[in-house]
Each structure stands twice: as C-alpha cells, then as structure tokens.
C-alpha cells in the first residue's frame, strides 16, 4: 500500500491559493494532479460533477474538503494534491463551511490508498498537527509535517477516553457497520479509518467489521449491517434502507464518532 508522502509529493502542494468559489478551489487541486501526472483534466471535471450531483458531502470536517470522484480512465495513477486557500470559500455545507483546505484524491482502486487515508485521518484529527499544517510557510515545510506523522496519537488530544475494561457488544456474533459516500473510495474510507480507531480503543475490533462503500451498493448491503454512518447529504440520498443511518459531521473527530457508536449500541 502507498503511504501519504508517496501519494502526495511536494510538487502537489500549493499554499495561499486564491479561488473565487468552490469550483475554482477544486480546479486548483485538480490542476496539481494533472501537473504531477496522476490525472487528466477530465478528472477535475468529474470531481466538480460529483459535488454537483451529490452535494457538499466532501466537506468532511470544519474547513476541510476532500475532493474526489470514482476511479475512471481519467485517473492515470493513484495520487493526491493539497491546496490551502488564501481566503475561505463556501461549499454549501451546513456545519463545516467555510473551507480553507482542499485535499484531492485520484484513485485507481480502493485498495492502494487505504493506508494513506488512515494517515491523513490521524493527522487532521490531531489538533497540534492540524495547526502545524495550517501554519506551514512553504510546501516543503508542510510536507515535512506530513512525513513526521507519529504511529500513535499522543495524550491530551481529541481522542475519547477509554474505560479500564473494554465494554463488549451484547451479542457475540460479528457485527458490520457501513461507512458510505457517493463513490466508495474517498470520504467513506476516511470515515472508516476514524471509526476503526474508535473500535480499537473500545476493544471491539474483533466484534465489529467496517466496510466503506458507495450509495448504490449500500442500499443492497444495508440488511447485513447494524448501522450505516455517513454525511447528512448522503443520508438524504440513501433514504430509508431498513437500518439506522447515523450522520457524522466531522469525519476526523474520534470524539464525535465515539458518540455515534455509543448511540448505535446504546452504550
């Protein structure tokens, strides 16, 4: 699997970029992936169309948009780009606007970038690291922050406290939770990684599996799941699937996902 600094070269980082609106912001991130050989211009149009079709669910955390679309012939190799905006822009998200950071992903499949998504989720979910990324004066300095990721989060972060003895699911059978996005390769993987970190801290990883999927597949798989976790926009698209659909506003927040998991299992 590729790691974050492999998928996000320093040449794909731009700071203090000016954009008039969300389309220009995604366009700036798309051009960087074209310049680094990851995509063609068509993929940038596909990322814009994804928001037009599915809404601003890609705004995964306050101030952070994760632009992407489905794997397509416009993706030449799996890659990413990072655009920090000079002035924030509105994407139309109910709680996470305005956006100052656009991270873009072009994926050839859902497997190659799984570890990179886990790394990015940990970095953006750590307040100190997120602040360092926001303050980095140059692309090189920002890339150095990305490369210095810790394997474990330090104390005093936004992680929920764990109990001295892990609580257990009421039933001993293996449970499944679906994380859902429009394409199944971007924000759903991001949320999957955050949820798995919470499950690890609860000691539930052996009892609950997490599967990232897209809206169409989620409707067919819903009967297999205890619950579906997603954004408000995708929840509206899913409608009634016969299982609880839980909305997560900040996909980087283990505290929020912890609360959603407690509500799901009435813990």
Automatic annotation (TrEMBL):
<feature type="domain" description="PTS EIIA type-2">
    <location>
        <begin position="6"/>
        <end position="149"/>
    </location>
</feature>
<dbReference type="Pfam" id="PF00359">
    <property type="entry name" value="PTS_EIIA_2"/>
</dbReference>
<dbReference type="InterPro" id="IPR016152">
    <property type="entry name" value="PTrfase/Anion_transptr"/>
</dbReference>
<protein>
    <recommendedName>
        <fullName>Ascorbate-specific PTS system EIIA component</fullName>
    </recommendedName>
</protein>
<dbReference type="InterPro" id="IPR003501">
    <property type="entry name" value="PTS_EIIB_2/3"/>
</dbReference>
<keyword id="KW-0418">Kinase</keyword>
<keyword id="KW-0762">Sugar transport</keyword>
<dbReference type="Pfam" id="PF02302">
    <property type="entry name" value="PTS_IIB"/>
</dbReference>
<dbReference type="InterPro" id="IPR002178">
    <property type="entry name" value="PTS_EIIA_type-2_dom"/>
</dbReference>
<keyword id="KW-0813">Transport</keyword>
<keyword id="KW-0598">Phosphotransferase system</keyword>
<dbReference type="InterPro" id="IPR036095">
    <property type="entry name" value="PTS_EIIB-like_sf"/>
</dbReference>
<feature type="domain" description="PTS EIIB type-2">
    <location>
        <begin position="175"/>
        <end position="266"/>
    </location>
</feature>
<keyword id="KW-0808">Transferase</keyword>
<dbReference type="InterPro" id="IPR013011">
    <property type="entry name" value="PTS_EIIB_2"/>
</dbReference>
<keyword id="KW-0597">Phosphoprotein</keyword>
<dbReference type="InterPro" id="IPR051351">
    <property type="entry name" value="Ascorbate-PTS_EIIA_comp"/>
</dbReference>
<keyword id="KW-0963">Cytoplasm</keyword>
<comment type="function">
    <text>The phosphoenolpyruvate-dependent sugar phosphotransferase system (sugar PTS), a major carbohydrate active transport system, catalyzes the phosphorylation of incoming sugar substrates concomitantly with their translocation across the cell membrane. The enzyme II UlaABC PTS system is involved in ascorbate transport.</text>
</comment>
<feature type="region of interest" description="Disordered">
    <location>
        <begin position="148"/>
        <end position="169"/>
    </location>
</feature>
């Amino acid at each position: 699997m590729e790691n974050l600094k492999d998928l996000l070269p320093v040449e794909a980082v731009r700071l203090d970029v000016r954009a008039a609106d969300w389309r220009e912001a995604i366009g700036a991130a798309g051009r960087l992936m074209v310049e680094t050989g990851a995509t063609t211009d068509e993929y940038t149009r596909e990322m814009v169309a994804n928001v037009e079709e599915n809404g601003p669910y890609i705004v995964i955390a306050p101030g952070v948009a994760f632009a992407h679309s489905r794997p397509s012939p416009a993706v030449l190799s799996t890659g990413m780009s990072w655009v920090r905006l000079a002035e924030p822009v509105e994407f139309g998200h109910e709680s996470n606007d305005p956006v100052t950071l656009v991270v873009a992903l072009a994926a050839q499949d859902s497997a190659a970038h799984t570890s990179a998504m886990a790394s990015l989720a940990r970095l953006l979910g750590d307040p100190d690291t997120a602040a360092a990324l926001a303050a980095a004066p140059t692309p090189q300095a920002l890339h150095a922050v990305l490369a210095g990721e810790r394997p474990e989060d330090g104390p005093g972060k936004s992680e929920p406290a764990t109990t001295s003895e892990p609580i257990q699911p009421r039933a001993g059978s293996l449970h499944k939770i679906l994380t859902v996005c429009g394409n199944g390769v971007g924000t759903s993987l991001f949320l999957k990684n955050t949820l798995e970190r919470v499950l690890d801290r609860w000691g539930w990883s052996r009892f609950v599996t997490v599967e990232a999927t897209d809206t169409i597949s989620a409707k067919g798989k819903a009967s297999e799941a205890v619950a579906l976790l997603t954004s408000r926009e995708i929840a509206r698209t899913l409608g009634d699937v016969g299982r609880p659909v839980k909305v997560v506003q900040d996909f980087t927040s283990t505290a929020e996902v912890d609360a959603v998991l407690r509500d799901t299992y009435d813990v």
